[in-house]
Amino acid sequence: MPRRGAPPEVNAGSMADIAFLLLIFFLVTTTIETDAGLDRMLPPIEPPDTDVIIRQKNIFTVNINKNGQLLVEEQLMDLKDLREAAIAFLDNGADGSCAYCKGRRDESSSDNPTKAIISLKNDRETRYGTYITVQNELVGAYNDLRNREAQRLFGRDFTDMEAQYLNPETPSGIRDDLKEKVAKIQELFPQKLSEAETSSSTN
Fold first, then answer.
1. Strand runs labelled E in 57-146
2. Residues contacting 9, CB < 8 A, separation 6+
């Protein structure tokens, strides 16, 4: 029998159950942020049987220094002008074999979109945001040209077709049709974006 005037006792028998329920609650309701990756295709493991000779004029060089400045084809360039310059390079068609190219056919620039390569190189101290922004502009150049050709051939943007094709909820019949169309546009302007090894600079 408890003594008169003593404080009431707290029943702690269910504290473990309460703690367990709280743990489950926080595990279920907590969201964990995940980093988004970059959509890039890695080169094949085995090298090709024959050596491929790449002419220098078919390589569009883009360098980013640690201060975020762009050196495009050894010339300083503003970021706002990068996409237009990349489009002009990819769409040049100097050798005359590209019937759908609308470029200047400059003999000092790329021969054909299938031969054109964009080489991106950055400094080890380059800001990640700057690097991603430059990449987006280069990929945007490919998408602009692909959208142009997709509109000409199929009456809709390539980016819309690709998104619908990659959507797992798209019916298989529609995906089969989109697969051929997406592959056709990708053949016209293959995305050859080469990322060179980073370097350290003293600039």
1. 59-64, 70-72, 75-77, 117-122
2. 2
